[in-house]
Design goal:
The structure holds two protein chains of two kinds.
Chain A (H helix, E strand, L loop, with lengths): L1 H32 L6 H17 L4 H24 L7 H23 L10 H4 L1 E3 L4 E3 H23 L1 H11 L1 H6 L4 H22 L10 H4 L1 H11 L4 H21 L4 H15 L12
Antiparallel strand pairs in A: 1-2
Chain B lengths: L2 H4 L2 H5 L2 H24 L4 H23 L8 H17 L4 H23 L4 H21 L1 H4 L24 H23 L1 H11 L1 H6 L4 H27 L9 H14 L5 H17 L6 H16 L7 H16 L2
Helix pairs in contact in B: 4-9, 4-12, 4-13, 4-14, 5-6, 5-12, 6-12, 9-12, 10-12, 13-14, 14-15
The chains are: A mainly alpha, B mainly alpha.
Chain lengths: 289, 337
């Protein structure tokens, strides 16, 4: 029974790590720039397809992950400068519409280039085998996800809490006008943050392809999950989105094991009730940290 | 049909020439719709589809355009209306009018209940709650195969003749007239609503809810009322879809459907009612004509149009005329010495 519980926990945490890596960029941009970005899933999807393309051609897996971060980062930076910047001052409706437009464009382009069928990322052999972890054997792939997710979380925490960049970021979130007044280049900060967020989304899309399978509808299908992580955690709250990602991963896993009939809507019902109970999210934060 | 514009106070105070122009403008979409009936031949069902989407987009205009409620869950009411009409015809009776009323009531009640639960929230939280609503209903529809047929869709609908005389035939003439009449009724209701003090108060709530509350408007109740009405209207569009195709697909409940209807409305222009007409028609034409090149190209074009609309054309295609006039005026000014 205990080992079964641990299995569910590991499944939930590894799933939650994927959700966290993809969503953390979104929580910062939504908290920092007040941008409702429904196109975030597209960057994850592009990262996944890039990694899939490289690994299917026989390329190195880690090189593929790196490129899966670089390409979404470049695209994200370009998108920020060209289409998102005029959006900051407009209302939510304009933001929702424009970013849905990007989702449509990304979905159509991916379908045109790669076809409408699921597209696998080829993981190295040692990741696809199960390994012995004491009380049972467990897929190495999921342990890898937990490891990478943990490293990303710690690195981000350090970056935001202890670096100059993090200090500037927190300052800009708290008061962008004041940050400009003391001479910070907030525009560059925004673009940089957007690129980091998109790169992480790409990494999550590529690494998590074994859980959130890649297909052209990815961008629209899973963006609800990513938004849920951000909103439930509290917009702009780094810790909140980590907790929310873990909680959602575990709840969804429990749902799949015990209530396989109700699993799909169990998640949304949870979110619905949670948001009615706490409209500002679990850990509402004015600042990123 | 021309009764509608004469109730417009703006039209009665304007000059005779512009009154005639506005009358023509109001009559035009309906004349096109009636004319299409006689010239369409085999493609009449496309016209029916367009009118269904016009009705759906118009219902969204009431909540999103006039009341400023940013929702992505409007497909829930469309799909529930379609399923309600379909299930009514399978389990109770085949009369389409009664089935239609049943669908309108069910989706209206659903709108009031879900609206009452979530309308006190605003912004992103509200948006997420509408997403959660439509996702819950979609997943339930997918799961409850015994009721909805799951992702195979609802099959085996029996649709009887309207008023016991007009059979739904293979050429879709009955379905076309049926859709046109329903659309016109809802248009009149909407027109009356948005020109009424109630509609004006919605306008105020969209612009400044706090001030409206301060001057004594029961903001929450007004929003709930329009949310319920728009839900009933979307359900009516869903019922039309179910009756005209005798089939309800799970996709009618999906988030993508919400996205598509929003695109139509925004393309056409919000807060004009007729924006829905232009948007839905253009969307259909674009989808139809680009589908020849590639089955996915339309999505690309629609996405591109959406981005361009937000960046350059805030009022939608209905705004093109005004922008053109402004451009012309600037051109003439710069011409003068």
């Amino acid at each position: 029974m205990l080992s079964f519980g641990l299995t569910i926990l590991l499944d939930g945490v590894s799933y939650g790590m994927v959700l966290f890596i993809i969503s953390v960029g979104l929580t910062i941009t939504m908290g920092l720039m007040r941008l409702v970005n429904l196109s975030h899933g597209s960057f994850a999807m592009i990262g996944g397809y890039v990694a899939g393309y490289i690994t299917q051609a026989g390329g190195n897996f880690y090189l593929a992950l790196l490129i899966a971060m670089i390409i979404p980062a470049i695209l994200g930076g370009l998108a920020e400068v060209t289409v998102f910047r005029p959006l900051y001052r407009k209302g939510e409706l304009a933001q929702v519409l424009l970013t849905i437009g990007i989702v449509f464009v990304a979905t159509a382009s991916i379908t045109e280039i790669f076809g409408a069928f699921p597209y696998p990322v080829v993981f190295p052999d040692y990741l696809t085998k199960p390994i012995d972890i004491g009380f049972r054997t467990y897929p190495a792939y999921r342990l890898f996800l937990i490891g990478v997710g943990g490293v990303v979380a710690i690195a981000l925490w350090y970056l935001i809490e202890n670096s100059l960049y993090g200090a500037k970021l927190r300052a800009a979130v708290d008061n962008p006008r004041m940050a400009r007044t003391v001479g910070m280049n907030v525009n560059v900060l925004f673009t940089g943050t957007f690129m980091v967020g998109s790169a992480l989304a790409g990494l999550g899309g590529a690494m998590g392809a074994g859980i959130l399978s890649l297909e052209p509808s990815y961008a629209l299908k899973y963006v609800v999950l990513f938004l849920v992580v951000v909103i439930v955690g509290g917009e702009g709250s780094f810790k909140g989105s980590f907790v929310a990602a873990m909680a959602l991963g575990i709840i969804d896993t429990i749902g799949k094991y015990f209530f396989s009939q109700a699993a799909p809507y169990l998640l949304y019902v949870t979110v619905f009730v949670l948001l009615l109970w706490r409209p500002q999210g679990l850990m509402p934060a004015k600042s990123v940290a | 049909m021309m009764a509608a514009p004469s109730t417009d106070t703006a039209a009665t105070t304007a000059s005779p020439a512009s009154r005639v122009l506005s009358l023509i403008g109001h009559a035009l979409p309906w004349l096109i719709a009636i004319g299409f009936y006689f010239v369409a031949g085999g493609s009449l069902s496309i016209g029916t589809q367009i009118m269904i989407w016009i009705l759906f987009a118009m219902s969204l205009d009431l909540v999103l355009g006039y009341a400023g409620i940013v929702t992505l869950g409007h497909a829930a009411f469309f799909g529930v209306g379609a399923y309600a009409a379909g299930l009514f015809s399978i389990h109770f009776m085949s009369d389409p009018i009664l089935g239609h009323i049943f669908a309108v009531v069910v989706s209206g009640v659903l709108g009031v209940i879900s609206g009452a639960l979530i309308l006190h929230t605003t912004g992103v939280t509200f948006l997420m709650l509408t997403l959660a609503t439509v996702s819950i209903i979609y997943e339930y529809g997918n799961q409850a195969r015994w009721l909805t047929g799951g992702d195979d869709g609802l099959q085996g609908m029996k649709v009887g003749p309207i008023f016991g005389t007009f059979e739904f035939n293979i050429f879709g003439q009955t379905a076309y007239v049926y859709a046109l009449v329903v659309l016109f009724i809802w248009f009149l209701i909407s027109w009356r609503l948005v020109k009424s003090p109630f509609g004006r108060s919605l306008d105020g709530i969209r612009q400044n809810p706090r001030r409206m509350r301060a001057i004594g408007t029961p903001v929450w109740w007004r929003l709930l009322a329009i949310y319920g009405i728009a839900a009933a209207m979307a359900g009516s569009a869903g019922a039309l879809l179910a009756h005209s195709t005798r089939f309800v697909g799970l996709s009618s409940l999906s988030l993508l459907t919400s996205g598509i209807v929003t695109v139509m409305l925004i393309l056409g222009g919000t807060r004009k009612l007729y924006g829905a007409f232009i948007g839905a028609a253009i969307y259909y034409l674009v989808q139809d004509s680009t589908a020849k090149f590639s089955p996915y190209f339309w999505e690309f074009i629609v996405g591109g149009m959406l981005i361009a609309t937000v960046l350059f054309l805030e009022g939608g295609l209905m705004d093109l005329g005004r922008i053109g006039r402004r451009f012309l005026a600037r051109f003439q000014r710069s011409d003068a010495p």
